[in-house]
Amino acid sequence: KLKNPLAEMRLGAMLTEGNPSNHDLAKAADLLRQSATGGYVPAQHCLGLLLINHTELPARPNEAIEFLQDASEAGRWQSSVALGVLYRDGRGVAKDVARAYYYFRIAQLQGRENAEHLIDGEVSKLSHALSSEQIRGLNAKADAWMTIHPLTLQFVYKDTVNSTDFPAFALSAANDETHAGRLIPTPLNQAEP
């Protein structure tokens, strides 16, 4: 009731867990959406996955992809993996091997050891479908992006968010090497890879 993004996220997640007969996916999506638009990055990730898996829930076209992209851009490597899978399989987006490779590469850089063992095989498979020039270009874009965005953010402030709604505690000292910050556009959002 106090519009706490962490509480909204936790309650939304609870409504999707356990016995499927106890799920309230529409309410979960609403709570996750409030938390995500409040800048809470884990909620963006969870909402993106929920909307991809339940196509009746998105409020607008591409909403799931947008939230996953926001979470990926904020440093959440699991969102980058999810985007890689979606572009690899053409699920919710047009199939795009280059974008899939790019997102898997970003995930490797973001998640380091946690991500590398999980997706090395995917990167290797996709590299067979790309030219060595494409791979070099995509690796360079991913490397350049990571030098500009080295932190993992827990909260993001975007111009579309009312600054009075942005939680003050998001700017306090971070836990687990995570930070709050302002999300800036990526080269991928501005042009195709």
Cα gyration radius (Å): 17 Å
What portion of residues belong to β-strands?
5-15%
**Residue ranges: pLDDT <50 for 5 or more in a row?**
168-175, 182-193
Order of helices and strands: HHHHHHHHEEH
Helix and strand composition category: mainly alpha
Assembly state here? single chain
Helix share bin = 55-70%
Explain this structure:
- The chain is mainly α and 193 residues long.
- The chain has nine helices and two strands.
- Strands 1-2 form a two-stranded parallel sheet.
- Helix 2 runs antiparallel to helix 3 and helix 5 packs antiparallel against helix 6.
- The radius of gyration is 17 Å and the shape is globular.
- The protein starts with a helix and ends with a helix.
Pick out its properties:
193 residues, 6% strand, 2 strands, mainly alpha, 9 helices, disordered C terminus, globular, two-stranded parallel sheet
Concise synopsis of the structure shown:
The chain has 193 residues and is mainly α. The protein has nine helices and two strands.
List the helices and strands and how they pair.
Layout: H1 5-14, H2 25-37, H3 41-53, H4 63-73, H5 77-89, H6 97-111, H7 113-127, H8 132-148, E1 152-157, E2 178-182, H9 187-190
